[in-house]
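Explain this record to help learners:
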Amino acid sequence: MKSVLVFTTMVHLAASSCLNLQNLVNFGDSFSDENRLNYIYEHQGLPPAGAILPENGNTTTSGGYKWPRMVARKTGAKSFNYAVGGATCSNKIVEREFVLTPGKPFPSVLDEQVPAFKADLEFDELYGNRTADNTAYAVLIGGNDLTANGFLTDSNARDTNITSYVSCVW
């Protein structure tokens, strides 16, 4: 319960201190995913191209609003959410198959989310007003990298370690 209160306080402080925040671009796992995982599953492993998924209210994996939506509402910023529930930082560190679409790797931050963001930059209607002064970028990742899917059970890729993971996030 303490961690939830600390996180909520951090979100509130971050949101109130970014007076000019117009765009929030985030990457991550189920702590941030607002329904991208379901979209990818329903479209045979393909992420949405040139479109940001609509606000999904309380039908997320947690049954409630995710932190990016709360920050967007608090600041009036537009939320660009690339997070996918179950994601790791990179398949080169913690590799696993996406069981919902057999034969395809799980959509990780570096291997799917960041390339999807870069592809979306080509669509002016999405990112027409994005500048360094009005856009914040966030990565919330680690639950799947460090626990049962990754380092905790020695399921990480050969010749990788915690430093590999930290470098990936950075």
Summary: Confidence is low (pLDDT under 50) at residues 1-6.
